[in-house]
Input
Amino acid sequence: MTQSRICLVTGASRGIGAAVAQSLSADGHRVALLARDGDALEEQQRALPTASMTVVADVTVPDQVDAAVAQVEDHWGPVEVLVCNAGGGLAKPLVETSDADWAGMLDINLTAPFRFVRRVLPSMTERGWGRIVVVASVVAKRGEAQVAAYTAAKHGVLGLVRAAAAEVARSGVTVNAVCPGYVDTPMTEATVDAIVARRGGTPDEARELLARRQPIGRLVRPEEVAAAVQLCIANAAVTGQGINVDGGAVQS
Output
């Protein structure tokens, strides 16, 4: 039987985060679900088969990051598995991207994971075991038009993962990223809306356009991303990696 671990999943109220929380709970782990929407978290929590808790916090507020981890520690003990899934996207031409747009993308997609990783690493290395997984994106590995700020932030967070993994490689702690393509989630719906606003057409046509960008010809399912997260948790020899879950869009 898999040893039960104390897990913290950010952005757990929907989409990939909810799927990750469900898969961890199904494996017998205790799961703390973190997001800004308390009602949505409670709805996800009711579906989990094992012990769980909800943590309402904004990952872009430094004091709330520290308080969120402390809440889990006070309730169960040190975080043993951290999944940084909370993130956000922005679709704008580079020349129309404001300083505020740029800062916002870096804050949620790069700085927030950095703060969580920095907060949980000491207890993990002290205990000689830990798993950190950041949900990045396929654009952590390639440039894509109309998403300069998002792409830069995701490239940055993959660099963070690689540096952290190298730093703690002999400690029993692994640090990895999963890099999804277009996933069937509310975030992709926002991308669909942006395509419709920019190019016209219907949401279904925009969704089909995204599906065709992936060789498998469909959107990735959230549970397929969750399965890659599980691999990173289960295998102690996998660290410093950015594992693509993109239907073959980027071969590496």
